[in-house]
Amino acid sequence: MSPFALLWFAALPVMQPASPAPVHGVSQVQESSPYGSQANVFIRQYLERLDRLSAKTVGPDRASIIQHLKRFYTAVGDRPVWTNRQSVARLIEVIEDSANDGLLTSDYHLDEIRNYYNNPDGSPALRARADILMTDAVFTLMSHMRSGKVYARAIESDWNIEPAQPGPDYDRTLMSAVMGSRFPELIQALRPASAEYMQLRNGLVRLKAIAANGGWESVPAGPMIDKVGALDPRIPAIRKRLAVTGEFVEPIVAPAESKLREDDGDHKGKEKSKKKSGKDAKSDSVATADSTMKSDSLGQVPVNPDELYNQELFDAVKKFQKSHGLSSDGVIGNETIKAMNVPVEQRIDQVRINLERYRWFLNSRGSNYVMVNIPGFSVDLVQNGVHKWKSRVIVGKPDTKTPVFRAEMQYIILNPQWVIPNGILVKDRIITTIMKDPSYLNRKNLAIVDSNGHVLSASSVDWGRYVSGGFPHRLVQASGDEGSLGRIKFMLPNRFTVYLHDTPSKELFERSRRTFSHGCVRVDKPVELAEYVLQDTVKWNRKKIQDAIDTDRTRTVNLPKSIPVYILYQTAFADGDQLQFRADVYDRDARLLRVLETPASSRFIDAATK
Question: What is the pLDDT of residues 356-371, one digit of tens each?
Fold first, then answer.
């Protein structure tokens, strides 16, 4: 054995052989094998073949795993290391559990490892293959838990958040994981430990249980159900649908109340029987009919209480609407029915997609940050790991998407002016509008400023030359309540020229789907956000910020410390035990799901060991 390997083993804890216990009645893997030395040869050959097959054809994440794999087997002299039956059984359990993280167990060779566990006797070639597959399963799963299966930049071209990197002793960690059978604990440690991740993971487990029980039935389309007291034959189906996911809980009748109802029923039954035994039987039958059906002459119809939209169901519908990003008004229209009818399998995939997105950044995110969720139309501020503040936001339109990236908020501008970007001048046909309506400049408080800072008159500009672009001057909008940036601008320098800001269009915050901007993020409560990020309740409390705004003077205020801002895309997340789903406003989920479903991460191992 090499000196390098001896150094590894000297640093490792002594591994006591585990007492093998049969699992599901299968036979036992032998602790030693006459094929040991022959298996070494095959391990070496397989790794050499892997090196050739994967050269220049794998992504950086997979290339890193392969390099770790090669160094690992070099350190142990290319000998088989999975000789402990209990370790193999634990590995099978860990891989099976990865399905609850939304990952594919096939990426970790589950079927072949299970087959090896059940049929341990085999040729040296098969033993070598099984050993490499098991080691690769551990290394790959650890990598996926740390920073995700999918390389983020391959999906999000604007992505600039660096994935969590292995520590300087990662090779030793991997060696310890396999040789010391500590891989379950290390994989658990690499799984994002944040509440967001674990709550969403728990939600996936619940959805899978619902799917195993048959999912939920669709609710038929029909007219709008707009108020408590309305009658509709779909009410039982709606009640049943919401009961499956927990929004609707059947009211529990107290035992005393139940007994009272039974006694009352018995009493009425006896009275009814007495009437029917005499001359009142006929009149009683008429009275009974009248109690459930009004006279045809009055145009009245039978009332089925099961079809009544009552207060309990109304509240359940509002809860469902809120958790799906819809207007929480209790009105059951097309959008609400459409959300109810999304199959459970599709919701499972939606959760899997967003667990992967979490793995891209949660292990590298700190405890102080501002986070914008684009499809959630929300912004959160977190200090020392505690959520301090939340607000609604407006994001980019589908043709002017807000990019996904990370930047540092460094300062704010009170009473900001807005220089209209050339792209917006062309896209919104502003030059054409000015040509048709010369009063547009005054109405929008726009000034024409040349490169020397001089204000030009509108008549001095040959507007027709710049309809398709190339405008050489700046159109500057003055600050004020009607200014497009509102009264506060939060600056986070970035290559997209995207920032957070106030807006005069406050009415748009009442919409459930808020994609109205040119790419920047409009904040509903900017003064509150300014107070938090300035972190000075004496000099910059809410009142003093407002006083500074009221001067109408443009002013730049530096933050005492820059704050990371994450602008992200999460179409599924959790609020405690309640799963939250949002519309895929930029149509990004399907592509990520396709890549997440691709078994590319393990194909080189499969090919090299056959």
Answer: 999 999 999 999 999 9
CATH superfamily assigned to domain 362-595: L,D-transpeptidase catalytic domain-like (2.40.440.10)
> CATH 2.40.440.10 residue ranges in the chain?
362-595
Taking the C-alpha atoms of residue 561 and residue 384, their distance in angstroms, rounded to an integer, is: 14
pLDDT in tens, 533-549: 999 989 999 999 999 99
Q: Which two tokens stand for residue 22?
A: 């049969």
- Among candidate residues 144, 572, 148, 156, the one with its CA nearest the CA of residue 346: 572
Least trusted range by pLDDT, from 34-38, 328-332, 418-422, 599-603: 34-38
SS3 390: strand
Burial category of 347 from C-beta neighbours within 10 Å (exposed 0-12, middle 13-18, buried 19 and up)? buried
Pairing relation of β-strands 572-575 and 578-581?
antiparallel
Helix (H, G, I), strand (E, B) or coil at 418: strand
Written as six digits, the tokens of 303 are 């009332």
Separation between Cα atoms, residue 152 and residue 161, nearest integer Å: 9
Q: Give 290-308 as a 3 state SS string.
A: HHHCCCHHHCCCCCCHHHE
- What is the pTM for the complete model shown? 0.85
Quickly tell me which residue has 């005393």 as its tokens: 256
Burial 429-455 (b: 16+ CB within 10 A, else e): ebbeebeeeeeebeebbbbbbeeeeee
Q: Around Cβ 263, how many Cβ atoms within 10 Å?
A: 10
Buried b (16+ CB within 10 A) or exposed e, 178-200: bbebbbbebbeebbbeeebbebb
E strand or H helix at 15: none
Position 176 scores a pLDDT of: 84
Using DSSP bridges, classify how beta strands 386-396 and 515-517 pair: parallel, antiparallel or unpaired. parallel
Q: For residue 325, give the amino acid letter.
A: G
Q: Which of 574, 483, 572 is nearest to 526 (CA)?
A: 483
User: What three-state secondary structure class fits 310?
Assistant: coil
Partnered with residue 455 across adjacent β-strands are: 449
CA distance 84 to 100: 26
d(CA 80, CA 549): 71
